[in-house]
Write a structure and sequence with these properties.
alpha/beta; Arc Repressor Mutant, subunit A; D-Maltodextrin-Binding Protein, domain 2; six-stranded mixed sheet; two-stranded antiparallel ribbon; 14 helices; about 25% strand; globular; disordered C terminus
Length: about 325
């Protein structure tokens, strides 16, 4: 059997769909189907039940996919170790980005990567937050910037910073909404990103907390579009606090009350790839770009610390 056959087996098992798996693997559907059939013939077991709506693992397939995943990880570890022996890190990293490049410091990350890890090729893919999470979990992305509270045992993360959001409306609505109740605010037109995004989920949770929901929703594809639509007078929205304060000071929007919602900006990656040199290199770069390394303590401070402990114990 070949590694590409095992990879095809695992990806079809993850997605449950031959066409989607072929798209991820960049092969034709007939070619992938032939790979699965050849693997079944070699193993002399049926791995999938073919149904009109997709591919389901058989009992044998469920047992064997675990071993196939282990073999693929072992093969990747072997390649990684070979690169380590050569003293270089090479590979492709597909990284998801969010709407604001400045916020996530993607320019600084890329500049540092070119200087420190020139043999790593980084592809940037603009994503909605919820989609980015699913792609990292399913293997469509190697890592991604992300904000929100979704969690899954197969996805690890490091926190980069806190993000806060404020409720804003068009500047011309300042008097109109100043004394508005939650129900009146919910009745105004609201501009939100797609439901899978963290931005939309924050707004929905906020309304649910007050037993209401927005009744007029205009959907925009990312937060920059949301911001521009509020400024143009179309409706209410959540806006990142730094932008909201800046635009309020410039008379472009008005703030509604002092409500402040917070979430965390994170960098997420598959937990099973903790030891992958490419992922490790990305995390190394992020720690420097975001100043996340623990400060080193000099010998004088260590001596002072020991002296304090000794004094406390006496």
């Amino acid at each position: 059997m070949e590694l590409y056959q095992l990879r095809g087996f695992v990806v079809v098992a993850e997605l449950g769909h031959l066409t989607r798996a072929a798209e991820r693997l960049h092969v034709s559907q007939p070619a992938l189907s032939a790979q699965i059939k050849a693997l079944e013939e070699e193993l002399e077991v049926e791995l999938f039940e073919r149904k009109s709506n997709g591919m389901m693992l058989t009992a044998a397939g469920k047992r064997l996919v675990v071993d196939a995943q282990k073999l693929l990880l072992a093969a990747q570890a072997l390649r990684n170790e070979a690169h380590n022996i050569k003293g270089e890190i090479t590979g492709l990293a597909r990284v998801g980005t969010l709407s604001d490049p400045q916020l996530i410091r993607v320019g600084e990350l890329m500049a540092a990567a070119v200087e420190r890890y020139p043999l790593i090729e980084i592809e940037l893919h603009h994503e909605v937050t919820g989609t980015a999470f699913e792609k990292v979990r399913e293997g469509g992305l190697d890592a991604s910037f992300y904000y929100g509270e979704l969690s899954h045992p197969s996805v690890a993360s490091i926190a980069l910073r806190e993000l806060a959001y404020r409720i804003v409306g068009p500047s011309a609505w300042k008097e109109r909404i100043k004394n508005a109740t939650w129900r009146e605010i919910a009745a105004e037109p609201w501009i939100m990103t797609p439901a899978i995004s963290t931005h939309s989920q924050l707004a929905t949770a906020l309304f649910r907390e007050h037993g209401i929901e927005a009744t007029k929703v205009v959907e925009a594809d990312d937060e920059r579009v949301v911001s521009s639509l509020v400024v143009s007078g179309l409706g209410m929205a959540l806006m990142r606090e730094d932008l909201a304060l800046e635009k309020a000071a410039g008379g472009e929007v008005c703030l509604w009350k002092e409500i402040r919602l917070t979430t965390a900006l994170k960098f997420i990656y598959p937990s099973q790839r903790e030891q992958d040199p490419v992922i490790d290199a990305l995390l190394d770069l992020l720690r420097d770009v975001w100043g996340l390394r623990a400060p080193k303590r000099n010998s004088a401070s260590l001596r002072a610390s020991r002296q304090t402990i000794s004094t406390d114990q006496s």
